[in-house]
Protein 1
Amino acid sequence: MLNIQQQVPLLKYNTLALPSTAEYFCKVASDNELQEALAWARKKQLPITLLGGGSNVVLASDLAGLVIHIAIPGIELVSEPNQAEKIIRVGAGEDWHQLVLHTLKQGWYGLENLSLIPGLAGAAPIQNIGAYGVELSDRFHSLEAIKLSSGEAITMTLDDCQFGYRDSFFKGLGRDQYVITAVNLKLSAKANLCLEYPALRQYLETKTLAGVTPPAITPKLVSDAVCAIRRSKLPDPTEIANAGSFFKNPVISSEQLETLKQKYPNLVNYEQAGGRKKLAAGWLVEQAGWKGITSSGVGVHDHQALVLVNYHGTGKDLLSLAGDIQASVLDKFGVSLEIEPRVYCK
Ligand SMILES: Cc1cc2nc3c(=O)[nH]c(=O)nc-3n(C[C@H](O)[C@H](O)[C@H](O)COP(=O)(O)OP(=O)(O)OC[C@H]3O[C@@H](n4cnc5c(N)ncnc54)[C@H](O)[C@@H]3O)c2cc1C
Protein backbone atom coordinates (compact mmCIF):
# COMPACT_ATOMS: atom_id res chain seq x y z
CA MET A 1 0.00 0.00 0.00
CA LEU A 2 1.51 3.29 -1.15
CA ASN A 3 2.30 5.71 1.66
CA ILE A 4 2.77 9.29 0.45
CA GLN A 5 4.17 11.57 3.13
CA GLN A 6 4.48 15.35 3.19
CA GLN A 7 7.48 17.56 3.99
CA VAL A 8 10.02 14.75 4.33
CA PRO A 9 13.65 15.67 5.16
CA LEU A 10 16.04 14.11 2.66
CA LEU A 11 19.20 14.33 4.76
CA LYS A 12 19.46 10.55 5.11
CA TYR A 13 18.53 9.99 1.47
CA ASN A 14 21.63 11.69 0.02
CA THR A 15 25.24 10.74 0.74
CA LEU A 16 26.30 14.40 0.81
CA ALA A 17 23.88 14.74 3.77
CA LEU A 18 22.59 18.02 2.35
CA PRO A 19 19.55 19.55 3.99
CA SER A 20 16.60 19.46 1.60
CA THR A 21 12.92 18.67 2.05
CA ALA A 22 10.62 16.79 -0.31
CA GLU A 23 7.17 18.35 -0.63
CA TYR A 24 5.78 14.81 -1.05
CA PHE A 25 7.75 11.57 -0.66
CA CYS A 26 7.07 7.88 -1.17
CA LYS A 27 8.98 4.63 -1.40
CA VAL A 28 7.93 2.18 -4.13
CA ALA A 29 8.72 -1.51 -3.83
CA SER A 30 6.98 -2.81 -6.98
CA ASP A 31 6.02 -1.75 -10.50
CA ASN A 32 2.39 -1.50 -9.32
CA GLU A 33 3.27 0.89 -6.50
CA LEU A 34 5.35 2.90 -8.93
CA GLN A 35 2.43 3.17 -11.37
CA GLU A 36 0.18 4.21 -8.48
CA ALA A 37 2.65 6.95 -7.45
CA LEU A 38 3.02 8.19 -11.02
CA ALA A 39 -0.74 8.33 -11.52
CA TRP A 40 -1.13 10.24 -8.22
CA ALA A 41 1.47 12.84 -9.27
CA ARG A 42 -0.01 13.13 -12.78
CA LYS A 43 -3.47 13.73 -11.36
CA LYS A 44 -2.14 16.50 -9.12
CA GLN A 45 0.11 17.79 -11.93
CA LEU A 46 3.16 17.57 -9.67
CA PRO A 47 6.76 17.31 -10.84
CA ILE A 48 8.48 14.01 -10.07
CA THR A 49 12.03 13.47 -8.80
CA LEU A 50 13.49 9.96 -8.68
CA LEU A 51 15.91 8.98 -5.98
CA GLY A 52 17.91 5.79 -5.57
CA GLY A 53 20.70 5.74 -3.00
CA GLY A 54 21.27 9.50 -3.35
CA SER A 55 24.99 9.01 -3.97
CA ASN A 56 25.13 11.06 -7.16
CA VAL A 57 22.93 14.06 -6.42
CA VAL A 58 23.50 17.55 -5.08
CA LEU A 59 20.32 18.69 -3.37
CA ALA A 60 20.79 22.45 -3.38
CA SER A 61 17.15 23.35 -2.65
CA ASP A 62 13.95 21.78 -1.43
CA LEU A 63 12.25 19.51 -3.96
CA ALA A 64 8.77 20.52 -5.08
CA GLY A 65 6.32 17.78 -6.07
CA LEU A 66 6.72 14.07 -5.46
CA VAL A 67 10.07 12.45 -4.69
CA ILE A 68 9.91 8.71 -5.46
CA HIS A 69 12.50 6.54 -3.75
CA ILE A 70 12.96 3.41 -5.88
CA ALA A 71 13.07 0.27 -3.73
CA ILE A 72 12.02 -2.43 -6.25
CA PRO A 73 13.84 -5.64 -5.24
CA GLY A 74 14.82 -8.85 -7.06
CA ILE A 75 17.77 -10.67 -8.58
CA GLU A 76 16.98 -13.59 -10.89
CA LEU A 77 18.82 -15.66 -13.43
CA VAL A 78 16.87 -15.48 -16.66
CA SER A 79 19.15 -17.50 -18.94
CA GLU A 80 19.14 -21.31 -18.91
CA PRO A 81 21.04 -22.55 -15.81
CA ASN A 82 23.50 -24.64 -17.86
CA GLN A 83 24.37 -21.85 -20.29
CA ALA A 84 27.80 -20.19 -19.92
CA GLU A 85 26.33 -16.76 -20.54
CA LYS A 86 24.41 -15.65 -17.47
CA ILE A 87 21.69 -13.09 -18.07
CA ILE A 88 20.41 -11.73 -14.80
CA ARG A 89 17.47 -9.44 -14.15
CA VAL A 90 18.00 -7.01 -11.31
CA GLY A 91 15.31 -4.88 -9.67
CA ALA A 92 16.14 -1.16 -9.71
CA GLY A 93 16.10 -1.00 -5.90
CA GLU A 94 18.87 -3.55 -5.36
CA ASP A 95 22.02 -2.20 -3.70
CA TRP A 96 24.76 -2.23 -6.34
CA HIS A 97 27.63 -3.52 -4.22
CA GLN A 98 25.48 -6.24 -2.61
CA LEU A 99 24.52 -7.28 -6.14
CA VAL A 100 28.19 -7.55 -7.12
CA LEU A 101 28.89 -9.73 -4.06
CA HIS A 102 25.83 -11.89 -4.78
CA THR A 103 26.88 -12.49 -8.39
CA LEU A 104 30.39 -13.50 -7.31
CA LYS A 105 28.95 -15.99 -4.82
CA GLN A 106 26.77 -17.50 -7.53
CA GLY A 107 29.73 -17.81 -9.93
CA TRP A 108 28.32 -15.19 -12.32
CA TYR A 109 31.36 -13.15 -13.27
CA GLY A 110 31.96 -9.76 -14.82
CA LEU A 111 31.04 -7.17 -12.19
CA GLU A 112 34.13 -7.58 -9.98
CA ASN A 113 35.81 -4.32 -11.11
CA LEU A 114 32.61 -2.43 -10.25
CA SER A 115 32.72 -3.45 -6.58
CA LEU A 116 31.89 -0.96 -3.84
CA ILE A 117 30.28 1.67 -6.05
CA PRO A 118 27.54 3.16 -3.86
CA GLY A 119 23.94 3.42 -5.00
CA LEU A 120 21.22 1.23 -6.45
CA ALA A 121 21.09 -0.85 -9.63
CA GLY A 122 18.42 1.34 -11.26
CA ALA A 123 20.71 4.36 -11.29
CA ALA A 124 23.68 2.49 -12.76
CA PRO A 125 22.66 3.12 -16.41
CA ILE A 126 22.05 6.85 -15.81
CA GLN A 127 25.73 7.72 -15.85
CA ASN A 128 26.97 4.33 -17.10
CA ILE A 129 28.86 3.68 -13.88
CA GLY A 130 32.45 2.73 -14.35
CA ALA A 131 35.59 1.94 -12.39
CA TYR A 132 38.92 0.16 -12.76
CA GLY A 133 38.65 -0.38 -16.49
CA VAL A 134 35.05 -1.64 -16.72
CA GLU A 135 31.82 0.25 -17.38
CA LEU A 136 28.24 -0.90 -16.92
CA SER A 137 27.84 -0.82 -20.73
CA ASP A 138 30.40 -3.69 -20.96
CA ARG A 139 28.04 -5.95 -19.01
CA PHE A 140 24.71 -4.49 -20.08
CA HIS A 141 22.02 -6.51 -21.85
CA SER A 142 18.88 -4.33 -21.67
CA LEU A 143 16.69 -2.46 -19.21
CA GLU A 144 13.06 -2.11 -18.35
CA ALA A 145 11.63 1.34 -17.80
CA ILE A 146 8.35 3.17 -17.40
CA LYS A 147 7.61 6.42 -19.15
CA LEU A 148 6.82 9.07 -16.54
CA SER A 149 4.27 10.94 -18.63
CA SER A 150 2.12 7.95 -19.64
CA GLY A 151 3.05 4.97 -17.44
CA GLU A 152 3.93 2.99 -20.59
CA ALA A 153 6.40 0.12 -19.95
CA ILE A 154 9.26 -0.21 -22.41
CA THR A 155 12.45 -2.24 -22.90
CA MET A 156 15.66 -0.58 -24.02
CA THR A 157 18.69 -2.23 -25.62
CA LEU A 158 22.36 -1.29 -25.41
CA ASP A 159 22.06 0.89 -28.53
CA ASP A 160 18.95 2.64 -27.21
CA CYS A 161 20.82 3.69 -24.06
CA GLN A 162 23.59 5.55 -25.97
CA PHE A 163 26.17 4.94 -23.27
CA GLY A 164 29.33 7.03 -23.13
CA TYR A 165 31.85 8.05 -20.47
CA ARG A 166 29.63 8.80 -17.42
CA ASP A 167 26.89 9.44 -19.92
CA SER A 168 23.76 7.92 -21.43
CA PHE A 169 20.49 8.70 -23.19
CA PHE A 170 19.06 9.37 -19.70
CA LYS A 171 21.31 12.41 -19.29
CA GLY A 172 20.40 13.74 -22.73
CA LEU A 173 17.09 13.41 -24.57
CA GLY A 174 15.77 10.91 -22.04
CA ARG A 175 16.47 13.10 -19.02
CA ASP A 176 13.62 12.99 -16.49
CA GLN A 177 11.45 11.00 -18.93
CA TYR A 178 11.76 7.41 -17.61
CA VAL A 179 11.94 5.40 -14.41
CA ILE A 180 14.23 2.42 -14.75
CA THR A 181 12.55 -0.52 -13.00
CA ALA A 182 14.97 -3.36 -13.81
CA VAL A 183 18.38 -3.82 -15.41
CA ASN A 184 19.35 -7.00 -17.30
CA LEU A 185 23.04 -7.80 -17.18
CA LYS A 186 25.13 -10.15 -19.30
CA LEU A 187 27.58 -12.03 -17.07
CA SER A 188 29.54 -15.22 -17.52
CA ALA A 189 30.13 -18.53 -15.76
CA LYS A 190 33.71 -18.26 -16.98
CA ALA A 191 35.99 -15.63 -15.42
CA ASN A 192 37.34 -13.19 -17.98
CA LEU A 193 39.36 -10.81 -15.85
CA CYS A 194 39.98 -7.22 -16.78
CA LEU A 195 43.27 -6.28 -15.11
CA GLU A 196 44.57 -3.54 -17.40
CA TYR A 197 43.76 -0.61 -15.14
CA PRO A 198 47.17 0.53 -13.82
CA ALA A 199 46.25 0.95 -10.13
CA LEU A 200 44.58 -2.46 -10.07
CA ARG A 201 47.44 -4.20 -11.88
CA GLN A 202 49.99 -2.62 -9.56
CA TYR A 203 47.98 -3.61 -6.51
CA LEU A 204 47.66 -7.19 -7.67
CA GLU A 205 51.35 -7.37 -8.54
CA THR A 206 52.86 -5.78 -5.50
CA LYS A 207 50.55 -5.50 -2.51
CA THR A 208 48.69 -7.98 -0.36
CA LEU A 209 48.35 -10.52 -3.13
CA ALA A 210 52.13 -10.93 -3.56
CA GLY A 211 52.90 -14.49 -4.44
CA VAL A 212 49.57 -15.12 -6.17
CA THR A 213 50.42 -15.84 -9.80
CA PRO A 214 48.03 -14.71 -12.57
CA PRO A 215 46.16 -18.02 -13.04
CA ALA A 216 45.26 -17.93 -9.34
CA ILE A 217 43.74 -14.47 -9.52
CA THR A 218 40.02 -15.03 -9.20
CA PRO A 219 37.11 -12.60 -9.70
CA LYS A 220 36.68 -12.59 -5.92
CA LEU A 221 40.32 -11.53 -5.47
CA VAL A 222 39.84 -8.77 -8.04
CA SER A 223 36.74 -7.59 -6.16
CA ASP A 224 38.66 -7.63 -2.86
CA ALA A 225 41.52 -5.70 -4.46
CA VAL A 226 39.15 -3.09 -5.93
CA CYS A 227 37.48 -2.70 -2.51
CA ALA A 228 40.85 -2.28 -0.79
CA ILE A 229 42.05 0.32 -3.31
CA ARG A 230 38.77 2.21 -3.13
CA ARG A 231 38.79 2.21 0.69
CA SER A 232 42.33 3.58 0.71
CA LYS A 233 41.51 6.34 -1.78
CA LEU A 234 37.94 7.46 -1.28
CA PRO A 235 36.28 8.71 1.90
CA ASP A 236 33.40 6.53 3.12
CA PRO A 237 30.21 8.61 2.81
CA THR A 238 28.94 7.19 6.12
CA GLU A 239 31.95 8.83 7.80
CA ILE A 240 32.45 11.99 5.69
CA ALA A 241 29.50 13.06 3.57
CA ASN A 242 30.43 13.07 -0.13
CA ALA A 243 29.22 12.06 -3.59
CA GLY A 244 32.42 10.48 -4.90
CA SER A 245 34.07 12.24 -7.84
CA PHE A 246 32.57 15.69 -8.01
CA PHE A 247 33.91 16.54 -11.47
CA LYS A 248 34.13 14.44 -14.63
CA ASN A 249 37.59 13.88 -16.06
CA PRO A 250 37.74 16.41 -18.92
CA VAL A 251 38.44 15.15 -22.43
CA ILE A 252 40.52 17.46 -24.64
CA SER A 253 42.14 17.41 -28.09
CA SER A 254 45.69 16.10 -28.53
CA GLU A 255 46.72 19.62 -29.73
CA GLN A 256 45.47 21.18 -26.49
CA LEU A 257 47.28 18.48 -24.53
CA GLU A 258 50.58 19.22 -26.30
CA THR A 259 50.24 22.95 -25.56
CA LEU A 260 49.44 22.25 -21.89
CA LYS A 261 52.32 19.78 -21.56
CA GLN A 262 54.83 22.43 -22.57
CA LYS A 263 53.86 24.36 -19.44
CA TYR A 264 52.98 21.34 -17.24
CA PRO A 265 55.20 18.39 -18.24
CA ASN A 266 53.72 16.21 -15.46
CA LEU A 267 50.15 16.64 -16.67
CA VAL A 268 48.35 13.34 -16.02
CA ASN A 269 46.50 12.13 -19.13
CA TYR A 270 45.00 8.98 -20.65
CA GLU A 271 44.42 7.94 -24.25
CA GLN A 272 40.79 8.09 -25.39
CA ALA A 273 38.99 6.66 -28.41
CA GLY A 274 39.36 8.91 -31.46
CA GLY A 275 42.79 10.21 -30.41
CA ARG A 276 41.39 12.52 -27.75
CA LYS A 277 42.96 12.74 -24.30
CA LYS A 278 41.37 12.44 -20.89
CA LEU A 279 42.85 14.54 -18.07
CA ALA A 280 42.62 13.65 -14.39
CA ALA A 281 40.23 16.22 -12.90
CA GLY A 282 41.59 15.50 -9.40
CA TRP A 283 45.12 16.40 -10.52
CA LEU A 284 43.92 19.69 -12.02
CA VAL A 285 42.02 20.61 -8.83
CA GLU A 286 45.00 19.70 -6.68
CA GLN A 287 47.45 21.68 -8.83
CA ALA A 288 45.12 24.67 -8.65
CA GLY A 289 45.70 24.54 -4.88
CA TRP A 290 42.30 23.29 -3.65
CA LYS A 291 43.19 20.05 -1.88
CA GLY A 292 42.15 20.19 1.79
CA ILE A 293 40.54 23.67 1.51
CA THR A 294 37.44 24.20 3.69
CA SER A 295 34.90 26.99 3.37
CA SER A 296 31.40 27.54 4.86
CA GLY A 297 31.04 23.99 6.17
CA VAL A 298 32.08 22.31 2.91
CA GLY A 299 35.47 21.49 1.47
CA VAL A 300 37.81 19.55 -0.76
CA HIS A 301 38.92 16.24 0.73
CA ASP A 302 42.47 16.41 2.04
CA HIS A 303 43.59 13.13 0.42
CA GLN A 304 41.52 13.14 -2.76
CA ALA A 305 41.04 16.52 -4.47
CA LEU A 306 38.34 15.15 -6.77
CA VAL A 307 35.99 14.61 -3.83
CA LEU A 308 34.08 17.53 -2.33
CA VAL A 309 32.85 16.91 1.19
CA ASN A 310 30.12 18.33 3.36
CA TYR A 311 30.77 18.92 7.06
CA HIS A 312 27.72 21.01 7.92
CA GLY A 313 27.07 23.17 4.86
CA THR A 314 24.25 23.41 2.33
CA GLY A 315 24.00 22.48 -1.34
CA LYS A 316 24.39 26.14 -2.25
CA ASP A 317 27.65 26.33 -0.22
CA LEU A 318 28.89 23.28 -2.10
CA LEU A 319 27.96 24.70 -5.52
CA SER A 320 29.64 27.98 -4.63
CA LEU A 321 32.87 26.13 -3.77
CA ALA A 322 32.55 24.05 -6.96
CA GLY A 323 32.12 27.26 -8.99
CA ASP A 324 35.28 28.75 -7.49
CA ILE A 325 37.21 25.56 -8.29
CA GLN A 326 35.91 25.48 -11.86
CA ALA A 327 36.90 29.14 -12.37
CA SER A 328 40.39 28.63 -11.01
CA VAL A 329 41.04 25.47 -13.08
CA LEU A 330 39.78 27.26 -16.19
CA ASP A 331 42.02 30.21 -15.42
CA LYS A 332 45.13 28.09 -14.79
CA PHE A 333 44.74 25.36 -17.44
CA GLY A 334 42.09 26.67 -19.86
CA VAL A 335 40.08 23.49 -19.13
CA SER A 336 36.39 23.43 -18.12
CA LEU A 337 35.37 21.03 -15.38
CA GLU A 338 31.88 19.57 -15.55
CA ILE A 339 30.06 18.61 -12.35
CA GLU A 340 29.40 14.83 -12.33
CA PRO A 341 26.45 14.43 -9.90
CA ARG A 342 22.98 15.63 -10.86
CA VAL A 343 22.34 19.08 -9.35
CA TYR A 344 18.86 19.92 -8.07
CA CYS A 345 18.56 23.66 -7.47
CA LYS A 346 15.52 25.94 -7.73
C1 LIG B 1 32.09 7.38 -2.40
C2 LIG B 1 31.51 7.32 -3.78
C3 LIG B 1 32.19 6.69 -4.81
C4 LIG B 1 31.66 6.62 -6.10
N1 LIG B 1 32.36 5.97 -7.06
C5 LIG B 1 31.87 5.88 -8.32
C6 LIG B 1 32.59 5.19 -9.33
O1 LIG B 1 33.65 4.63 -9.10
N2 LIG B 1 32.06 5.15 -10.58
C7 LIG B 1 30.86 5.74 -10.87
O2 LIG B 1 30.43 5.68 -12.02
N3 LIG B 1 30.15 6.39 -9.92
C8 LIG B 1 30.61 6.48 -8.66
N4 LIG B 1 29.91 7.14 -7.70
C9 LIG B 1 28.63 7.78 -8.05
C10 LIG B 1 27.40 6.91 -7.71
O3 LIG B 1 27.73 5.87 -6.86
C11 LIG B 1 26.76 6.32 -8.97
O4 LIG B 1 26.44 7.34 -9.89
C12 LIG B 1 25.48 5.52 -8.65
O5 LIG B 1 25.04 4.84 -9.80
C13 LIG B 1 24.36 6.41 -8.14
O6 LIG B 1 23.33 5.56 -7.67
P1 LIG B 1 22.20 6.09 -6.72
O7 LIG B 1 21.20 5.00 -6.56
O8 LIG B 1 22.80 6.61 -5.47
O9 LIG B 1 21.60 7.27 -7.59
P2 LIG B 1 20.97 8.64 -7.08
O10 LIG B 1 22.07 9.51 -6.57
O11 LIG B 1 19.83 8.39 -6.19
O12 LIG B 1 20.44 9.23 -8.46
C14 LIG B 1 21.32 9.68 -9.45
C15 LIG B 1 20.49 10.13 -10.65
O13 LIG B 1 19.83 9.00 -11.21
C16 LIG B 1 18.42 9.17 -11.21
N5 LIG B 1 17.84 7.86 -10.88
C17 LIG B 1 18.06 7.14 -9.78
N6 LIG B 1 17.40 5.97 -9.84
C18 LIG B 1 16.72 5.98 -11.01
C19 LIG B 1 15.84 5.06 -11.66
N7 LIG B 1 15.52 3.88 -11.12
N8 LIG B 1 15.33 5.40 -12.86
C20 LIG B 1 15.64 6.59 -13.44
N9 LIG B 1 16.44 7.50 -12.88
C21 LIG B 1 16.99 7.19 -11.68
C22 LIG B 1 18.14 10.23 -10.17
O14 LIG B 1 16.95 10.91 -10.46
C23 LIG B 1 19.38 11.09 -10.27
O15 LIG B 1 19.24 12.02 -11.32
C24 LIG B 1 30.41 7.23 -6.38
C25 LIG B 1 29.70 7.86 -5.34
C26 LIG B 1 30.23 7.91 -4.06
C27 LIG B 1 29.46 8.57 -2.96
Note: Residues 2 and 33 are 6 Å apart (CA to CA).
Protein 2
Amino acid sequence: MTTAIRINRKSSRPTRRDRLIGEYEHDTCKTRGKLPEPTACRECGAVFRKGRWQWVKKPKCAHETLCPACHRIHDHYPGGYLTLRGPFQQEHRDEIVHLIENVEAREKAGHPLRRIILVNQQDDNVLITTTAMELARSIGDAVHRAYKGELCYQYTDEANILRVVWER
Ligand SMILES: [Zn+2]
Protein backbone atom coordinates (compact mmCIF):
# COMPACT_ATOMS: atom_id res chain seq x y z
CA MET A 1 0.00 0.00 0.00
CA THR A 2 1.48 3.32 -0.99
CA THR A 3 0.28 6.68 0.11
CA ALA A 4 1.65 10.01 -0.94
CA ILE A 5 0.90 13.53 0.11
CA ARG A 6 2.10 16.23 -2.20
CA ILE A 7 1.92 19.84 -1.22
CA ASN A 8 2.21 22.46 -3.88
CA ARG A 9 2.29 25.84 -2.26
CA LYS A 10 2.52 28.92 -4.39
CA SER A 11 4.20 31.38 -2.13
CA SER A 12 4.07 34.50 -4.26
CA ARG A 13 1.66 37.02 -2.87
CA PRO A 14 0.28 39.50 -5.37
CA THR A 15 0.49 43.17 -4.53
CA ARG A 16 -2.92 43.88 -6.02
CA ARG A 17 -6.01 41.98 -5.00
CA ASP A 18 -9.18 42.32 -6.97
CA ARG A 19 -12.40 43.39 -5.36
CA LEU A 20 -13.99 39.96 -5.29
CA ILE A 21 -11.19 38.48 -3.22
CA GLY A 22 -11.26 41.51 -0.96
CA GLU A 23 -14.87 40.83 -0.10
CA TYR A 24 -13.96 37.49 1.36
CA GLU A 25 -11.11 38.63 3.51
CA HIS A 26 -13.53 39.04 6.36
CA ASP A 27 -13.60 35.23 6.60
CA THR A 28 -10.54 35.52 8.74
CA CYS A 29 -9.89 37.06 12.10
CA LYS A 30 -9.73 40.39 10.29
CA THR A 31 -13.47 40.56 10.96
CA ARG A 32 -12.55 41.62 14.45
CA GLY A 33 -13.21 45.29 14.89
CA LYS A 34 -15.15 45.60 11.63
CA LEU A 35 -18.50 44.17 12.62
CA PRO A 36 -20.51 45.63 15.47
CA GLU A 37 -21.10 43.10 18.24
CA PRO A 38 -23.27 41.22 18.55
CA THR A 39 -24.20 40.64 14.92
CA ALA A 40 -26.38 37.73 13.77
CA CYS A 41 -26.59 36.12 10.33
CA ARG A 42 -30.08 36.52 8.95
CA GLU A 43 -29.72 33.28 6.99
CA CYS A 44 -28.26 30.68 9.37
CA GLY A 45 -28.54 32.42 12.73
CA ALA A 46 -24.85 32.27 13.63
CA VAL A 47 -23.83 35.06 15.98
CA PHE A 48 -20.66 37.13 15.79
CA ARG A 49 -19.53 37.78 19.35
CA LYS A 50 -16.19 38.21 21.06
CA GLY A 51 -14.45 38.36 17.70
CA ARG A 52 -15.77 35.12 16.21
CA TRP A 53 -18.82 33.43 14.77
CA GLN A 54 -20.60 31.10 17.18
CA TRP A 55 -23.74 29.01 17.46
CA VAL A 56 -25.43 30.80 20.32
CA LYS A 57 -28.90 32.17 20.87
CA LYS A 58 -29.41 35.36 18.90
CA PRO A 59 -29.33 38.35 21.26
CA LYS A 60 -32.32 40.67 20.95
CA CYS A 61 -30.13 43.67 20.26
CA ALA A 62 -28.08 41.93 17.52
CA HIS A 63 -27.29 43.68 14.26
CA GLU A 64 -28.02 41.65 11.14
CA THR A 65 -25.85 40.63 8.22
CA LEU A 66 -24.96 37.63 6.10
CA CYS A 67 -22.16 35.62 7.68
CA PRO A 68 -19.11 34.83 5.50
CA ALA A 69 -20.24 31.21 5.03
CA CYS A 70 -23.74 32.15 3.82
CA HIS A 71 -22.16 34.86 1.70
CA ARG A 72 -20.01 32.24 -0.03
CA ILE A 73 -22.94 29.85 -0.45
CA HIS A 74 -25.05 32.61 -2.03
CA ASP A 75 -22.30 33.66 -4.42
CA HIS A 76 -21.12 30.09 -4.92
CA TYR A 77 -17.59 31.16 -4.16
CA PRO A 78 -15.99 28.17 -2.41
CA GLY A 79 -12.91 28.39 -0.23
CA GLY A 80 -12.18 24.69 -0.63
CA TYR A 81 -12.59 22.02 -3.30
CA LEU A 82 -12.30 18.29 -2.78
CA THR A 83 -12.38 15.85 -5.68
CA LEU A 84 -12.82 12.12 -5.13
CA ARG A 85 -11.50 10.00 -7.97
CA GLY A 86 -10.97 6.40 -8.89
CA PRO A 87 -12.99 3.18 -8.94
CA PHE A 88 -13.05 2.72 -5.15
CA GLN A 89 -15.24 5.76 -4.50
CA GLN A 90 -17.63 4.67 -7.25
CA GLU A 91 -18.19 1.38 -5.47
CA HIS A 92 -18.35 2.87 -1.96
CA ARG A 93 -19.85 6.24 -2.71
CA ASP A 94 -22.73 6.16 -0.21
CA GLU A 95 -20.42 5.11 2.58
CA ILE A 96 -17.88 7.83 1.75
CA VAL A 97 -20.51 10.55 1.41
CA HIS A 98 -21.87 9.50 4.80
CA LEU A 99 -18.39 9.90 6.31
CA ILE A 100 -18.08 13.32 4.67
CA GLU A 101 -21.39 14.49 6.13
CA ASN A 102 -20.26 13.36 9.59
CA VAL A 103 -17.03 15.31 9.28
CA GLU A 104 -18.97 18.40 8.21
CA ALA A 105 -21.41 18.09 11.12
CA ARG A 106 -18.54 17.79 13.60
CA GLU A 107 -16.55 20.71 12.15
CA LYS A 108 -19.57 22.95 11.75
CA ALA A 109 -20.57 22.43 15.37
CA GLY A 110 -17.37 24.09 16.55
CA HIS A 111 -16.75 26.36 13.56
CA PRO A 112 -19.94 27.87 12.09
CA LEU A 113 -18.11 29.06 8.96
CA ARG A 114 -17.03 25.55 7.92
CA ARG A 115 -19.74 24.08 5.71
CA ILE A 116 -20.25 22.03 2.60
CA ILE A 117 -21.69 24.06 -0.28
CA LEU A 118 -22.39 21.18 -2.67
CA VAL A 119 -21.68 17.49 -3.18
CA ASN A 120 -21.67 17.12 -6.93
CA GLN A 121 -21.43 13.86 -8.81
CA GLN A 122 -19.59 14.53 -12.05
CA ASP A 123 -19.43 11.46 -14.25
CA ASP A 124 -17.09 9.13 -12.37
CA ASN A 125 -15.90 11.69 -9.83
CA VAL A 126 -17.40 13.51 -6.88
CA LEU A 127 -16.67 17.21 -6.38
CA ILE A 128 -17.31 18.67 -2.94
CA THR A 129 -17.14 22.41 -2.46
CA THR A 130 -16.78 23.98 0.98
CA THR A 131 -17.04 27.45 2.45
CA ALA A 132 -13.67 27.13 4.18
CA MET A 133 -10.45 25.50 3.09
CA GLU A 134 -10.04 23.95 6.55
CA LEU A 135 -13.11 21.80 5.93
CA ALA A 136 -11.89 20.56 2.54
CA ARG A 137 -8.65 19.60 4.29
CA SER A 138 -10.40 17.86 7.21
CA ILE A 139 -12.65 15.89 4.89
CA GLY A 140 -9.72 14.89 2.68
CA ASP A 141 -7.74 13.80 5.74
CA ALA A 142 -10.69 11.79 7.10
CA VAL A 143 -11.28 10.00 3.79
CA HIS A 144 -7.56 9.28 3.52
CA ARG A 145 -7.43 7.94 7.09
CA ALA A 146 -10.44 5.72 6.55
CA TYR A 147 -9.73 4.42 3.05
CA LYS A 148 -6.02 5.09 2.40
CA GLY A 149 -5.45 5.90 -1.28
CA GLU A 150 -3.60 9.02 -2.43
CA LEU A 151 -4.21 12.55 -1.19
CA CYS A 152 -2.93 15.78 -2.77
CA TYR A 153 -3.27 19.39 -1.63
CA GLN A 154 -2.90 22.40 -3.85
CA TYR A 155 -3.07 25.79 -2.21
CA THR A 156 -3.49 28.98 -4.21
CA ASP A 157 -2.29 31.81 -2.08
CA GLU A 158 -3.56 34.70 -4.19
CA ALA A 159 -7.14 33.45 -4.11
CA ASN A 160 -6.88 31.83 -0.69
CA ILE A 161 -8.33 28.58 -2.04
CA LEU A 162 -7.38 25.01 -1.23
CA ARG A 163 -7.91 22.19 -3.72
CA VAL A 164 -7.73 18.65 -2.41
CA VAL A 165 -7.77 15.56 -4.58
CA TRP A 166 -8.22 12.07 -3.21
CA GLU A 167 -7.90 9.03 -5.40
CA ARG A 168 -8.08 5.32 -4.94
ZN1 LIG B 1 -24.95 32.55 7.90
Note: Residues 41, 43-44, 46, 67, 69-70 surround zinc ion (CB under 6 Å).
